[in-house]
């Protein structure tokens, strides 16, 4: 049994979803673990689930008009970090009162720094460190994007003692003594789905993009389309706009022919786990998504374009490769929950 302070980035659902999956897997293995979650934004969802939760300032990545807004992201971070010392001291007090044994962080700034000052071991469990802590290749034309992204990850989010990286692609770690790579962490509703089926429809999920540009891509698809991310709207031909629904989305994904998305790691990983190739259009200036999309194509399990305007012309070549991509997907492992939970347990201080 361990008392765990868990710092989570809450600027979107991905970090919270991964952290919840880690938590659920740890509790399945030992229900006596106790958790205190720290963060802002969607991290408050943990309170609704009955976990102890401490709201904390969040260095969020601001996305506007379908791409990262660098100045707004920097301005938000600066306004928080100017009171950095005060925030860390308050968190140290919380960790002492909670009698924390270990700190886990998923791309959160304050928790590993407070843990270090208290001598509490801290472990990073996320995907982002594949870019900085492994021998990850850079997509062509993304050098400036890579440099700016690496500076952010190294400067703000690399204060942990160890790094357990969850990724559908796993380059060699730069330092195997501190960094280990594992298959993706999957949320419980995905793991509990019935066996995948191969239907004719396509699942589409695009966050923060232009609906007008997306529709030009979808017009080239001669299949039923289940579109999420734009709310419920009147159907347009073979395009059905669906209201947000976790159960509905996962059932549509389970029975889909393939998926179209940005380059978010969680959705790509879930699609691959269910045997679905992915056509990706990474969000502008979001370097992690560009890397994810690059490796999809490199591994032969998907395709991508940095320009959604080119998407319509990609549908035919993508569908021509579906069978080959499905075969390649079947040869890989896309489930890492148990392996990561086991490694975390081995790093927890013994009573």
Provide an overview of this structure.
By secondary structure, the chain is of the alpha/beta class. The protein has 2 domains: 3-185 and 336-347, Rossmann fold; 190-329, Rossmann fold. Helix content is 42%, strand content 18%. It contains 15 helices and 16 strands. Strands 3-2-1-6-7-8-9 form a 7-stranded parallel β-sheet, sandwiched between helices. A hairpin with a 2-residue loop joins strand 4 and strand 5. Helix 1 (13-29) crosses helix 15, helix 4 packs across helix 5 and helix 9 (211-218) runs parallel beside helix 13 (311-320). The longest helix has 17 residues, at 13-29. The termini are close together. The mean pLDDT is 95.
Low-pLDDT sequence parts: none
What is the CATH T-level topology of the largest domain?
A: Rossmann fold
Order of strands side by side in the largest beta sheet? 3-2-1-6-7-8-9
The amount of beta strand, in percent, is 15-25%
Question: What is the CATH homology-level superfamily of the largest domain?
Answer: Glycogen Phosphorylase B
* Total number of domains: 2
Total DSSP helices: 15
* Overall average residue pLDDT: 95
């Amino acid at each position: 049994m361990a008392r765990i302070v868990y710092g989570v980035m809450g600027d979107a659902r991905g970090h919270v979803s991964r952290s919840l999956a880690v938590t659920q897997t740890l509790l399945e293995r030992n229900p006596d673990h106790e958790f205190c979650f720290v963060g802002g934004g969607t991290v408050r969802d943990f309170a609704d689930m009955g976990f102890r939760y401490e709201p904390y300032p969040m260095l969020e990545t601001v996305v506007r008009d379908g791409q990262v807004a660098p100045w707004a992201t920097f301005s938000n971070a600066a306004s928080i970090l100017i009171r950095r010392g005060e925030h860390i001291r308050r968190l140290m007090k919380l960790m002492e009162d909670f009698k924390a044994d270990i700190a886990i962080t998923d791309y959160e700034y304050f928790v590993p720094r407070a843990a270090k000052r208290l001598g509490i071991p801290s472990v990073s469990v996320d995907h982002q460190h594949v870019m900085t802590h492994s021998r990850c290749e850079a997509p062509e034309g993304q050098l400036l994007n890579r440099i700016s992204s690496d500076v952010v990850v190294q400067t703000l989010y690399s204060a942990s003692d160890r790094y357990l990286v969850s990724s559908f692609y796993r380059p060699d770690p730069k330092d195997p003594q501190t960094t280990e790579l594992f298959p993706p962490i999957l949320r419980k509703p995905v793991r509990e789905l019935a066996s995948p089926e191969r239907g004719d429809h396509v699942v589409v999920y695009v966050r923060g993009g232009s609906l007008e540009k997306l529709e030009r891509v979808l017009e080239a698809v001669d299949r039923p389309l289940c579109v999420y991310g734009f709310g419920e709207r009147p159907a347009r031909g073979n395009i059905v706009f669906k209201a947000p629904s976790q159960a509905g989305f996962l059932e549509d994904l389970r029975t889909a022919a393939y998926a179209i998305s940005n380059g978010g790691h969680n959705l790509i990983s879930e699609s691959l786990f269910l045997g679905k190739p992915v056509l990706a259009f990474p969000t502008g200036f979001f370097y992690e998504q560009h890397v994810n999309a690059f490796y999809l194509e490199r591994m032969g399990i998907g395709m991508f374009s940095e320009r959604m305007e080119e998407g319509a012309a990609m549908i035919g070549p993508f569908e021509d490769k579906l069978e080959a991509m499905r075969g390649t997907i079947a040869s890989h492992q896309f489930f890492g929950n148990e392996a990561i939970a086991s490694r975390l347990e081995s790093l927890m201080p013994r009573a």
